[in-house]
Each structure stands twice: as structure tokens, then as C-alpha cells.
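Thread: Modeling a multi-component assembly for a lab meeting

Hi all, long-time lurker, first post. My supervisor asked me to bring a structural picture of a complex we are working on to next week's group meeting, and I have zero experience with this. I have the sequence lines for every component (792 residues in total). Could someone generate the structure of the whole assembly? Inputs are pasted exactly as I received them:
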Amino acid sequence: MIFRSTKLDNLLAARFTMGYSMAFHIIFACIGMTMPFLMVVSHWLYIKRKDEIYLRLTKTWSKGVAIFFAIGAVSGTALSFELGLLWPGFMKHAGAIIGMPFSWEGTAFFIEAVCLGLFLYGWNKLNPYLHWASGLMVGISGVASGIFVVTANAWMNSPAGFDWVNGQAVNIDPWAAMFNDAWVSQTLHMTIAAFEATAFGVAGLHAILLLRKKNVLLHKRAMIIALAIGSVAAIIQPLSGDFSAKDVAKRQPIKLAAMEGQFETEKGAGLTIGGIPNQEKRTMEYGIKIPKALSFLAYGDFDAEVKGLNDFPEEYLPPVAFVHFSFQVMVACGTFLAALGIIFWIIWFKTKDFLLHPKFLKVVAVGTPLGFIAVETGWIVTEVGRQPWIIYEILTTAESVSPVPGQIFHLIVFVISYMILAFAAVWLMRRQIKALDNDFPEEQLKTAE
Amino acid sequence: MLYVVILFLLASVYLYCLLGGADFGAGIIELFARGKSKLHTRALVTRAMAPIWEANHMWLIITIVILFNAFPPIYTRISITLYIPLILMLLGIILRGTSFTFRHYDIKTDFSQEVYSKIFEVASFIVSFFLGMLIGAVVSGKIMLHPEGFWEAYMNPWLNWFSISTGLFVTTIFAFIASVFLIGDSDNEELRKEFIGKSQKATLLMIAAGGLVFVASIIENVDFAFDFISNPFSIGLIAAATVVLPILWMVIKRGKKWSSRIITGAQLLFIISAFYAVYFPKIVVFKDAEDLTLFNSAAPDITVSLLAWALMLGSLLIFPALIYLLRVFKHLEDKNGWTSTPS
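Re: Modeling a multi-component assembly
Sure thing. I ran the full set together rather than chain by chain. Output:
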């Protein structure tokens, strides 16, 4: 019964609401952070080569940025309230400790909003280079604000900068809290992921449009810019992932064990690919095992000991299967995109003509959602993998949840409104693309020849 | 350093009410415009708001960040007790921002424009109203530390005549600010006259709603009315707000755009200060416990001073950028009478 919700239902509803709000916001945040860089490259090419197609591309992209930025800004505002609405027990302590990066984020976000206004409305009004620089500043401040927010999340995984005495934080040191042990690995991984997801998303969209053979020149250039940026991100991402995994192995052995579905503590542990963790029987069923690989990946030593889940009390374990699957999906998506990135550069240097080959375009099209799926599943690993803690080994999620009953209504209302927003955004994009086709029939004639 | 943070907090609230309020007010004026007036009001609002609304919205984020960083007990108390109106306000904020952007950027102009506009207008009204309700609710003295039952805990603090009247008051204030700002944005004499008419109505409504706050405070047994009258600062400030009213009308008649805006800004400052002088330094007024003030809820010194530095350094970046943004668009507008369609 929804009307007589128990404490547990309330916690579950609050967790779903938070997860849903984050999952929604992160897509728009990624786009808002990195789309400006794509725009800036195209804008630069226009300024240098005076090629109208780049101008049109820049303007088309900038409209997308404006729409996505607005959704990102309002859903981000919602999150800044939801932290307190859903987790007052957490914010009561965390605010004073980890509020500092949020105050910097506020500044960065402000600059981003101002520069976006200048960029979008500055055509023919600002000096071209100043105008271009305002676009660049949108991207830089966007990335900066992303980094500040992720720093705060890193602190939840790797609490620092306070002493926990009788359920109260004392001796607070916001600097130490912000520059906690996890901040480098997490912000690096997320920033690269944002570029990867957005760029491949954009490239895939233009590949789909190229398959329809309309505005070929524009979509081709768009796809190349996006693939060039996305491929670099995708190729370096596994390195950053390796760095993150080693970091997690050191700081949060339970999370690592859940990611890998490692139940027994063992030396020279193998890496399981696929597989279904059975939390009741405490075994990993099916899956392919690569001997000693996990020990090496986590500790750089084939014979290192990897802690298994069985070494920890049951109440401190996250839902293992969910974390394991999410991790595997993330890695699979990342691997696909890295391979696609390498293929792109091979084609670029060997046979450029193949870029417009339907087979290649179809592969790029398949990659459209994969970066975002990797971002979502990666966040599931980070957040669900930390459960039952909200501040790792300090405060549990259950202790932090709001006492207000009926959280389920909050969930329902937000699910509905964000769904509407998502549909509206997709619908608007389709209209923009259709208009693009109708606006330039003469170019289509040219390219059709 | 705590005083620096308090100053920034109050300044952010003020700037959100002024700049964000002007944007909300624009939606409210649209909502109540009729017939032909509705169409050109929409066009004017879109043109005036588009480049700056996101920057104006940021003051809310700054306010929230200051609250949870430097005054965590206040932030968490408001989050718990005023959960329901906060969610409703958030929904309004989400709908308003996105529908405004959609209206502006949608490439086709068909039935969808009507939908975006309706959502934008209604959401503008709702957000203003709930924002005002929240302000009334935190100081109403109806918040309880040990409430009995759902109503007393989560409803009564905001669903009472006092909060409703502050909600209406804030709504009329926002409409008033927007109407004065829009007089300056009007590009022809006819439109100017129309908005002068609207702002006269808004002024009268604002005064009426202000009176309502006093009446409601007596009905609801909130100490506001008596404390206000016996507070020399409040009386002085409200007198100042009244005195500048005729000056404002004189300036508007002479067509002085920026002077009229500055006077409106000053008037808002007087009204807010008059209201808050009654309560300073209290933020959350409890019925059954010691009130939460800006002093007894402050985070440890180190947090406060780091925040103060962040705000001071941040404002060195923010204010020049913001002023530049406003100058670029306002200056060009004055010179060329441009229309701000993004091309």
C-alpha cells in the first residue's frame, strides 16, 4: 500500500528518486560540459576557412546546447534541493565539510551561464574571436563545475577532512575533504567519460542522418569532428579506468569484489567476464575466467591477494549482482567505443572514402547510446557499490533518509515530469533536424549528384 | 568572516528576488494579459529575457549553496518541514525554465508555442507564489521540533493564511518589478503605454497584498504585525519605499529607463529589508524550540571563512562577467533596436 508506507519503503523510494534524478541529470550535464568543445572546433574552422557549412553546423549545435543546457540547469537545481529533501541526515553533516567545492561549482556554473548567453546571442554583435572565446569559456567552466561536483561525490567514497566522534563531525578541514584520496581518479574518469559519451552520441546521430543521404557535407564534417574528439577520449579511457580500479581496490575492497563478483579471498585471483553472481550461494555461476588477471589489474601483481565478499559481514555488502552487471556493461560499452575509435583513425589515415560507407556509418550509429549507457552503469557501480553507506564506513543511507512519509509521491511526480522532458527534448531535436533538411534543398541537389 | 557570508546570503536572496523575480513577474504578466496584448507581451518577454534568464536563475543556486555549506541546520530543517512546498516549487522551476527555452528555440511556430507559453506562465505564477509561501512559512513560528501528526509537522507551517498572504505579496512584487522593467524594454510608444498601465495595476495589487499580510498575521496569531509596527527600522524602510513611489512614477513619465529600474531595485531592497528587520538574525522561527539564527546555526569557522573567500573571489569573476553580458545586450538594444532572435 502506498498510503501506509513503512520506513523501508520510504528509504527505497528516496533512493529511487535520487538515482532517477541523477541518471536524468547526468545525461544533460555530460552534454552541457562537452558539447561546447565540439561547437568551438566547428566555429574555429568557420572563422579560419570562412566555410558556410561550418557556420551552419555551429549554429545547429549551439541550439542543441541551449536546449540541453536549460534542462541540465533546472534538473541540477532540483538536485541541489533534493540532497536536503531526501537526505537531511547526510547534509546536516556533509554541508559544512564538503560544501566548499559546491560553492566553487556555483561560480563556475554562473560563468557558464553568462558565457552561454554571450555565445548564443553574440552573433554579429561581438568581435569574432571574443565570441569564439565565450563559447570556449562555456566548455571550460562546464568541465570545471563537473569536476567540483564529482569531487564531492569522491568524498562520499573516500571520506576525509574530519574526525567522527559520537556521531558528529569535528575538526573539520574542507581542503582535506575536497582533495580526498578518490578525487583524482573519479574526476578524471568522469570528465573523459563525458567527452566520450557526448561525442559518440553526436557522431552516431550524424551517421544516422548520413545514412539518409541528406545534407551530406554538413553531417560528414560533424561526424568527423565528433569522432576525432570521442575517439581520443575512448582510447585513453581504459587507462583512466585501470587507475580507478586500482584506487577502488585500495580504498573500497568490498566495492571491487562486488564489481568483479569475487566471493572468496584468493591470491592470484582470476578475472570473470560475464557470469551471474549468486549472493545466496555465494558463488559466481557461469562466466569466463581469465586466470590471475584480476590480481594483476587490481594490484599490478599476478599473485596479489584480492579480498572476497565472504570476508565482510553480510550487512555491509551492496547488491552484488546489480553492481557486477553494471560494471560489465560499462566495460563492454567502453571497449566497443575504444575499438571504434581506433578503427576511425585507421580509416582516416588509410582510406578516407570509407568514412561514408554504409557499413561504417551503421557501426557508428550503433555507438550512439553506448557512451551514455557506460556513464549510467558506471554511476550505478559507484553509488550502489557503496551501499549501505552514504558516507563510506561513517554514515548509512538508512540513517540519512528524510523522515517525511510518502516519498513515493515525490518519485512518481519526478518520474513523470522527467519523462515528459525527455520526450520533449527528443521531439524538439527531430524538429530541428527536419527543418535543417528543408532549409537547404539546393545543397542536397548538389550532393546528390 | 561570518558577516561576509551573511552579506552574500542576503545579497543573493535580494538579487534572486530582483532579477529572477523580474523573470517570474514577466511570466505572471503574460498570464494575465488578454487578447492582442497577450501576443506582443509574449514577444517582448521572450526578447528581453532570453539572453539573461539563466544567469538570473543562478542566484537561487548560490543561495542554496551558501545555506547548506555555512548553515546546514537551517538547510536541513527547511528541507524536512517544508518538503511539500519545496517539491512543488521545484516542479515549477523545472517546467518554467524548460518551457521558456523550448518556446524560444523550437524551430517551428505552431500549436506547440501555445503549450510552452501556457506552461511558462502558470509555472512562473506557481514558483513565485510558493517562494513567497516558503518565506512566510519559515518565519511564521508554526514550525515545530516535536510535532504531533502529519498536519502539524509538514502542512500547517506553510498552509496557513499568513504564508498564503506572503505568497500573494511576493507574486505581486514580482509582477510589479517585471512591469517596470518591461516598460524600458518596450520598443514603441503604444507598448510603453500599455506596460505603464500594467505596472500601475501591479502597484495597487502589491499594496493591497502587503496589507493582507498584516491582516493574515493577526488572524493567524503570527507576531509579525505587532513586531513590525514596533520596529523603527521596519517603519523607516517601509516609509522610504512609499516615498520613492511618486519619484518612480515621475521618472517613468519622463521615459528614463535606467533610473526607473534602479528606483524599483531600491524599492525592493526597502521592502525586503523592512520585512526581514523584524526577524534578523532569525531564519527559522520555531514554535516549541529555540529559533535557528544566522549565528547559532553557522558551520565551524574554517568552513565559513573558506566559503567567504570563495564568494569574494567568485564575485570578482561573476560581477564583471554579468555586467559585461548586460551591457553588450542592453547597449546594442538601445543603439540598434535589435531583436534578439538567436540566429
